[in-house]
Write a structure and sequence with these properties.
Blueprint (H helix, E strand, L loop, with lengths): L1 H27 L12 E6 L7 H6 L9 E7 L5 H12 L5 E5 L8 H10 L6 E4 L4 E2 L4 H6 L7 E5 L2 E4 L4 H24 L11 E4 H6 L12 H11 L3 E4 L4 E4 L5 H18 L1 H5 L6 H11 L4 H22 L6 H5 L4 H14 L5 E4 L2 E6 L2 E4 L1
Parallel strand pairs: 1-2, 1-4, 2-3, 6-9, 7-10
Antiparallel strand pairs: 4-8, 5-10, 6-8, 11-12, 12-13
Length: 376
């Protein structure tokens, strides 16, 4: 068993080395060149309820250093507390083109996409940006994500992000997972696959033409991983999907540990249905648990302890290279001691992702069938 887990550790160390190389490759690309290309753009913000720092996150979209853009917010119900935040923004920024759309039509099981379809109808511009309600952006966000559209080959731009943790252990573990596990995986996929062939909900910037090429948002109204599907379909239609160097922030709630587990299981099961082979390949992304198990079964073997030492060094090198070197996430340095716990929890969650098809999303229970949502 020590040899079996030792081999898994070696394979995982190979992944860490590849991820470090992929991160270096991404950094060497440099910052986005900001030329004179700045087309008018519509930002679509689908909302449901209020997230941590909700007003500040929405407000960051109203103070963009960009010549012309409009904001369209969408809710399913006019009594949603998010609607009141939008009205506050309208009062604070009376000269900024803003609109609140109440999407009363239910076009599919994914209410967010159903809402987006109805929000897109009054949008005035050729370029469209969608991001999640809990995303906060820097003032030059629009400049940096619209710049790649100067090339006619670009059909979508997406962004890496860092999680801003709350006070609970679950919130901190999810934040560490984003910066030291998820984004390194995204950068590795980008290198291995010769580009990005999916998108992240942190930013979905696209043109009307690329959206029309996949049949519009209406084709996604029953999918859970709508962001992944959107990017994958635009890539399959022959367009480039660009991973921007603009890092945005995702404000995480104060999860209880049970809520954290439920959220991560939803994420895992969604990924398994979207990228089944990629999800299976995650077995090689848990170097620290495999190294500890190697020592557990081969405590008398000097090589096992040496392997554990190398694993710790490479695991923390990857965490700092991406978490701080690219994402500039101070929590990676603050909570570095939680990385081993995060890795063991991640292994359990990965196994849990194989065990069922049911997910809990925004208080409702669904069953996943080939990536689509069916009410449980």
């Amino acid at each position: 068993m020590a040899i079996v887990f030792g081999l898994l550790t070696l394979c995982s160390l190979g992944y860490c080395a590849l991820a470090l190389w992929s991160a270096r490759n991404f950094r060497r690309g440099g910052r986005t060149h900001l030329g004179g290309f700045a087309p008018p753009v519509t930002i679509l913000k689908p909302l449901k309820g209020t997230d941590p720092s909700a007003y500040e996150s929405l407000r960051s979209h109203c103070v963009q250093e960009y010549p012309e853009y409009e904001l369209i917010f969408g809710v399913n119900d006019d009594t949603d507390p998010a609607a009141e935040l939008v009205r506050r923004l309208m009062a604070e920024f009376p000269s900024r083109p803003m609109r609140l759309v109440v999407g009363t039509k239910v076009l599919g099981t994914n209410r967010k996409v159903s809402n987006l379809v109805q929000m897109l109808e009054p949008a005035r511009h050729r370029h469209v940006v969608v991001n999640d309600s809990d995303i906060s952006v820097p003032p030059d966000y629009l400049q940096r994500i619209l710049a790649p559209f100067e090339s006619a080959r670009t059909g979508m731009v997406t962004c890496p992000y860092r999680g801003i943790a709350g006070h609970t252990l679950g919130s901190k573990l999810e934040s560490l997972g984003i910066s030291t596990e998820f984004i390194p995986g995204v950068l590795t996929a980008r290198k291995l696959e010769g580009g990005v062939h999916f998108a992240l909900g942190s930013t979905l910037a696209m043109t009307r033409e690329s959206l029309a090429a996949i049949g519009g948002l209406e084709t996604l109204v029953d999918y859970l991983a709508d962001d992944f599907e959107l990017g994958a379909r635009i890539s399959a239609a022959g367009y480039d999907v660009v991973l921007s160097d603009c890092v945005v922030e995702n404000h995480l709630p104060d999860y209880s540990f049970a809520e954290f587990i439920a959220h991560q299981l939803r994420w895992g099961r969604s990924t398994r249905h979207s990228r089944p082979w990629g999800y299976a390949g995650l077995i090689f992304t848990f170097p620290l648990p495999w190294a500890v198990l190697t020592v557990g079964f081969g405590a008398r073997e000097l090589w096992a302890w040496g392997l554990l030492g190398v694993t710790l060094a490479l695991r923390y090198a990857l965490a700092l290279s991406v978490g701080w070197g690219i994402l500039r996430d101070p929590q990676v340095r603050k909570y570095w001691w939680l990385v081993p716990l995060r890795d063991f929890v991640a292994l359990g969650l990965w196994i849990g992702g194989f065990t069922g098809r049911e997910v809990n999303w925004r208080g409702e229970r669904f069953v996943l069938e080939k990536g689509k949502l069916r009410p449980a």
